[in-house]
Amino acid sequence: MQYTFPEGFWWGSASSAAQSEGAANVGGKAPTIWDHWFETEPHRFHGQVGPANTSTFYERYREDIALMEQIGHNSFRTSISWARLLPDGHTVNQEAVDFYNKVIDELLAKGIKPFIGLFHFDMPMYWQEQGGWESRETVAAFAKYAELCFKLFGDRVACWMTFNEPVVVVEGGYLYDFHYPNQMDFKRAAQVAYHMMLAHSLAVKCYRALSLPGQIGIVLNLTPSYPRSSHPADLKASFIADLFFNRAFLDPAVKGVYPQELIDILREHDQMPVVQSGDGELLAAGKIDLLGINYYQPRRVKARMTAINPGTPFLPDWFFENYEMPGRKMNPYRGWEIYERGIYDILINLRDNYGNIPSYISENGMGVEGEHRFIGEDGQVKDDYRIDFIRGHLQWIHTAIAEGSNCRGYHLWTFIDNWSWMNAYKNRYGFISLDLDSQKRTVKKSGEWFADVSRNNGF
Ligand code: BGP
């Protein structure tokens, strides 16, 4: 069967500043929470490799953008480093302005639409020390930073993304200990989540006031929540997991309001964040033009069977347990489930319950541990598994579009194998492999395949 995508479909990949630029303390950049955390607890990072050790996009952006063109990209997402642009929190770093101008101009020169994120987990240490997302001051600071970016680069950026996966900042930093500042406290987590959505809304409001030519959105990792069975207790478990991990961000971003059911649960358990008068109008102003969807794997849940010990602090997990569904297909090289149809379910949910908001797949990808095992005699990674993975997801996207979904593009995570938070270089995801020592880039088999897909607008 021939799968042809709508004209103008965005083909590309995504990366982020902290994961690709390197130059951690070069060019006037100040430390982020990642630089700080690595300095204080390097053993928590795979292979003790920290954020200074990347694919050095800061120096090699030209070479990389040429490779993007070679493998058929017509669009690419990366992010701006807040700590590079405003190192002391307030003064603009001209070297950073020059760098991002060069990146954006180079992308445009190669016919690649720039999608630019403003926050991809990389809180500047300067703001973290003042409370980070727990502090309302950070909301205003973020909006100022966003406005500066819009004014500097907004004449050329096709689409802005305020945040990448805000729920991961909340889970990692304030619930489950995999991001700095490693707190485990639901009430603080709720405040952080709320402040990020206010910051998002304020940034959208600033963007609208400038009447620039592009669009603005947010990137959410939408994780469809599938119940073990149709028993009411399992259905309730999946409904609540969906509320906490998807709708707590999706509803304010698309509809401008929080789901009432979420507010009810938080009130009942005395976990409401501090809200100020006027916040409702601000959230209503944060409605997006375009939704970026990151999809890796679904969440399978069942009703909680084991009682929570009295005195256990409040967590979303009070309401459900993960369900290891027998027979589910797993990625043998990363331990995550592969469920291609999940991407269709997300798109159809957006069509039916979110006004068919324009969207695109901003990340989808297959992490592979020990990928050097698949290097052929010619030095190329023969990642047929990744081609199958991408093709499987694209088929479901195609079906969703045929059924009326407003999905406009597909970006793989990621362009070139990059540094990934605590996992560092453990899981490789790129279209292009990276030799960390020599910095040599080699297009993988999937990269060559993708070039054809993009040129044919399908497969
Ligand atoms: C997403 C993030 C990316 C990247 C990816 C892969 O959640 O947006 O920044 O980290 O996950 O993650 P990992 O390397 O942990 O498999």
From TrEMBL:
GO cellular component terms, semicolon-separated: cytosol
InterPro entries: GH, Glyco_hydro_1, Glyco_hydro_1_AS
Swiss-Prot/TrEMBL GO biological process terms: carbohydrate catabolic process
Tagged with keyword Acetylation: no
Highest taxon of the lineage: Bacteria
GO MF term set: beta-glucosidase activity
Coiled-coil annotated spans: none
Leader sequence segment: none
Active site residues according to the UniProt entry: E363 (nucleophile)
Alphabetical UniProt keywords: Glycosidase, Hydrolase
Keyword Hydrolase: yes
Pfam families according to UniProt: Glyco_hydro_1
PANTHER family: 6-PHOSPHO-BETA-GLUCOSIDASE GMUD, GLYCOSYL HYDROLASE
Similarity field: Belongs to the glycosyl hydrolase 1 family.
Protein name per UniProt: Glycoside hydrolase family 1 protein
Record organism: Aeromonas simiae
